[in-house]
Amino acid sequence: MVIKTGELRRASAFDTTLATASRRPETPWGAERKLDVAMAIQSLGIDVIDTGFPGASPTDLKATRMMSEQLTDAPLSSFCRSVPRDVVNRPGRLSS
User: Fold this and answer.
1) Other beta carbons less than 10 A from residue 15's beta carbon
2) Contact (Cβ atoms closer than 8 angstroms) between residue 4 and residue 37
3) Are strands 48-52 and 76-78 parallel, antiparallel or unpaired?
4) Nearest residue to 60 via CA among 33, 81, 87
């Protein structure tokens, strides 16, 4: 998305590093590593961070929960299926 402000234009950035890393079995990242990477991405000023699919594993759910509690600037985006297990673990439920 490009936001037009007078003569200046600003491009929004949507980062998929965490989602892509989750699909690579040769590079398993724990929840703490994913949080560290998310903090680094946030520090770059990225507009949205894609956490991937929290329903894929307890580690991914824990990582998304940690990010939702500790990231303050970048909004998170996550994917889920509409099956009961994923809906129960949906990101909106992280704080309840």
Assistant:
1) 19
2) no
3) parallel
4) 33
- AA identity, residue 31: A
14-59 residue pLDDT tens: 888 888 776 666 667 889 999 999 999 999 988 899 988 888 788 8
Hey, what are 56's tokens?
A: 């894929």
Cβ proximity of 11 and 4 under 8 Å: no
Q: φ, ψ for residue 43 (rounded to 5)?
A: -65, -20
> What beta strand segments (E) does the chain contain?
2-5, 8-11, 14-15, 48-52, 76-78
Quote the longest CA-to-CA distance of the chain.
48
CB 18 within 8 A of CB 50: yes
Look at the block and give the residue holding tokens 């509690």: 69
